[in-house]
Design a protein that fits this description.
globular; alpha+beta; single chain; 3 helices; binds zinc ion
């Protein structure tokens, strides 16, 4: 098992659609184990393969809801359906999200309240999750990564300008920048 470096915005792998997983072999199983370890070390509630430099359609998630139910798993070749967006400005307290590929920042973003995920697990067994609220947000966020979309790409013009300033100041927005959970300094 290994904690993997997490790519930061600007790395091309984060900004291009990922390819379907053809078959689940030892390489994929090892990747997923390492992704769980990386997600937990970060810590984060989700991690998509492109974030660790692998352009494949799979992500891990791990989150405990208000009712103490633990949601933890891997979604291979997922499909996602979402409810219509409720118009309006997102709430800074209740609707702010962050991303391990834009670390240390949070921005408010309106997301669909409900998401239905269909995917297969590591045994190739299909399953479905109906997620509401924060779980729906996690699923939408991770699914976006597989299409080369970061949540900061979805922010309004005002926040986009702040995002660009932050990225420039930190030397992000170019290929090859990463950070590794548990290590002190950003690399690249
Ligand atoms: Zn993310």
């Amino acid at each position: 098992m290994a904690v993997l470096p997490i790519r930061i915005t600007g790395d091309p792998v984060l900004h291009a659609p990922a390819s379907p997983v053809d078959r689940i072999d030892d390489e994929i199983r090892t990747l997923v184990r390492d992704m769980f370890e990386t997600m937990d070390a970060a810590p984060g509630v989700g991690l998509a393969a492109p974030q660790v430099g692998v352009p494949l359609r799979l992500f891990t998630y791990g989150w405990t809801d208000e009712g103490e139910r633990e949601w933890r798993g891997v979604a291979v070749n997922p499909e996602l359906w979402i409810s219509p967006l409720v118009p309006g400005m997102p709430d800074e307290d209740d609707e702010s999200e962050g991303c391990l590929s834009f670390p240390g920042e949070r921005f408010a973003l309106r997301r669909a309240e409900r998401a239905i995920l269909r995917a297969t697990d590591l045994e190739g067994e299909p399953y479905e999750i109906v997620g509401d609220g924060w779980l729906a947000r996690i699923l939408q966020h991770e699914y976006d990564h597989l299409d080369g979309v970061l949540y900061v790409d979805r922010l309004d013009d005002h926040d986009q300008r702040i995002v660009q300033k932050i990225a420039k100041k930190r030397g992000w927005g170019r290929p090859g920048v990463s950070w590794t959970p548990g290590e002190e300094h950003l690399e690249g």
